[in-house]
Design a protein that fits this description.
six-stranded mixed beta sheet, Rossmann fold, four-stranded parallel beta sheet, globular, 14 strands, disordered N terminus, alpha/beta
Length: about 400
């Protein structure tokens, strides 16, 4: 299945302090995006800038703190830099003064561990012109030809942008249709969208918008209704719909109305198939049946938002999990890129949100420690379908694609 990405290609700038990362970001964007200074450690937090890069497409450049930061907050800044490295689609590793040691090697090693393409860039080359034999040795060692760059060198900047274009795979910024392989031109689908206290005022939530756009791109017909109108919607058409898609929170209510002959799934399951390790999700949901008193569950949200009384991660899922286990289950919610509250091995299962605002690489990087530690992982939609007892039906439409 193609790799999904609904967000722009992320290109990170990495290296030690005062290696010209912020200067390069300003040159690439043609704007004074990042503060530059001779003082080491000017960049303390990741700085992001979106732009349309000629010949490449929509991208987000990420400037990061130096990986040799020795200040009292240095370890936290380095940790944030390494998290960014795990999530970018392409890394530009800057080094200078003819020095390439353990700091740079560490960056290359993580790129290799996560299969992240990288560019080696000797910066500040007007200050120190690197020896060609040494650069050739680096090329042989790391299987990529280092580039040489000086601030203000238009030709070197053009060559760098061309290299970026060569390494950015087309699908990394091409939108993958959420309904690919499931819905076809001329099909009729129903989107059942509950409007509750957690719904944003005046608009639909992002997954619902994404699926609606996916249907339009395929040239399918999409009808939209709330659960209370679903029965009438089904009766109003001469033929049953090809697919009904609903919010995971009303799975059981919708399943009771939709005939068993009509395929049924959820917005969150579509995102799980497109972005996450789907097979791990399906296997990991079984851990919910093993939950017992005293167990802890980690709930990961890709975005941050205001919490309501209907909040799925903080209210509904914890209540459903405790009810299912017939015991009090402790749930820790970690949003965005926040650090975990405790070691990953303290958790009986990890439940990831749909990730509508995240890239597949971000989600997979976030879940990688749990997978490596053998901690079961699953997804909001899969967990809710399982708890409602209709998971087999909800994933049946995906069986030929990814199970």
């Amino acid at each position: 299945m193609p790799i999904a990405s609904y967000n722009k290609t992320r290109i990170g700038l990495f290296g030690r302090r005062n290696r010209g990362k912020s200067t390069l970001l300003n040159a690439l964007t043609g704007q004074q995006v990042a503060i530059i200074s001779p003082e080491a450690g000017t960049t303390t937090d990741p700085v992001r800038k979106s732009m349309e890069l000629l010949g490449v497409g929509p991208v987000v450049f990420v400037d990061t703190a130096g990986i040799d930061d020795t200040t009292h907050l240095g370890s936290q800044r380095i940790a944030a830099t390494m998290r960014e490295l795990a999530e970018v689609n392409l890394a530009i590793i800057l080094f200078s003064d003819g020095v390439f040691d353990r700091n740079e090697e560490r960056l290359v090693e993580q790129c290799n561990d996560t299969s992240t393409p990288f560019i080696l860039l000797h910066s500040l080359s007007d200050r120190y012109n690197p020896d060609s034999a040494w650069l050739n040795d680096l090329a042989e060692r790391y299987h990529t030809t280092p580039l040489v760059y000086s601030n203000g060198d238009a030709d070197a900047l053009r060559i760098l942008i061309e290299r970026i274009g060569d390494l950015v795979v087309e699908c990394s910024h091409r939108q993958f249709n959420l309904l690919d392989g499931l819905v076809h031109q001329g099909d009729h689908i129903i989107l059942c969208c509950p409007i509750d206290g957690a719904a944003p005022a005046g608009r639909l939530i992002l997954p619902q918008v994404q699926v609606l756009r996916a249907a339009l791109d395929i040239h399918a017909t999409a009808s939209v209704c709330q659960p209370s109108e679903l029965k009438n919607a089904l009766l109003s058409f001469s033929h049953p719909p090809n697919l009904v898609i609903t919010d995971s929170q009303v799975f059981d209510q919708v399943a009771a109305v939709v005939p068993s002959s009509v395929p049924l799934t959820s917005f969150s399951l579509l995102l799980a198939r497109a972005k996450g390790p789907f097979a791990h999700y399906i296997e990991g949901v079984k851990a919910i049946d093993r939950l017992k008193a005293g167990d802890r569950v980690l709930i990961l949200e890709s975005c941050t938002h205001n919490v309501s009384c209907d909040d799925i991660g903080r209210v509904k899922l914890p209540c459903l999990l405790s009810k299912h286990a017939n015991a009090q289950i402790q749930c820790d919610v970690v949003a965005g890129s926040m650090n975990l509250l405790r070691p990953i091995t303290d958790y009986a299962v990890v439940i990831q949100c749909g990730g509508c605002v995240a890239t597949p690489r971000q989600i997979r990087a976030r879940l990688a420690p749990a997978i490596a530690a053998g901690v079961p992982i699953t997804n909001y939609g899969i967990a809710l379908a399982h708890l409602a007892g209709i998971l087999p039906r909800a994933i049946k439409i995906f069986e030929k694609q990814c199970l």
